[in-house]
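Field reference: "sequence" (input) and "structure" (output). Example, DNA repair photolyase:
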Amino acid sequence: MDYIKAKTILQKCKDNSWFGNDYNMNLYRGCCHGCIYCDSRSECYQIEDFDKVRAKENALMILRDELRRKVRTGIIGTGSMSDPYNPFEREEKLTEKSLMLIDAYNFGITVITKSPLITRDIPLYKQISEHSPVLCKMTITTADDKLSRLVEPRVAVSSERFDALAKMSDTGLFTGITLMPVLPFIEDTEDNIRSIVRRAHECGVRCIYPAFGMTLRAGNREYFYQKLDESFPGLKEKYIRYFGNRYECASLNAQKLWQVFTEECEKYGILYDMKAIIYSYKAGYDDGQLSFFD
């Protein structure tokens, strides 16, 4: 494992509209999942050799110092730029140890991952939930394992992620799915959306937040088109024809998919509105203690 220098671990969020996060935390840099659509690969983030995972030097010491300097507790989000449960986490245990610190200083946590390794830390998430809000989310964009292997080649297939969600839900943890990005012409079918929502219900998932489309910009676009040529011959030309150089590439079926999605969620009692999700997973905790003051 290579290490990179870091001055800070917690970055203050401009607002807490994204899953109620007050801070973002990234203990690793880069990702080895190989997802063909990853926006974090974009040039604007300036992550060299993106597919190589590096840990942040003295991350836990820095995190401890930052946590103890905060006057009030809040919600820490992790998983936005690199998966906190990459394969190296089994040995490095930076995420596991950071959860211990988050628990010790009475902070809350929201996490996004694609790895069933998160189930290793169920006891820690349960411990944190005794005093602060916890939301554990899996990114799932297709219900089909063969397709998930094509678009997310070096990570657990969708069925394994659903199984992990079921294990966490069974313990009483508040679980969710980030259904994004739903790739145009690949995953944007009514059957796929219905299957994901139905499977989520079977696994006890409480919320799903979708994006029916994707983003493409320099760095990400070139990699994505290369992978389309390898796994979906002829589809790159379709993307170019319909989207050109746009940043936002919404599914042509987005309106219909949203209707199908919301109807299915309503049927199963699954939350999908961001404000409702935030309100629900924070319910029962003291809101007065859920904001940061430097």
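The two ends are 33 Å apart (CA to CA).
DSSP finds eleven helices and twelve strands in the chain.
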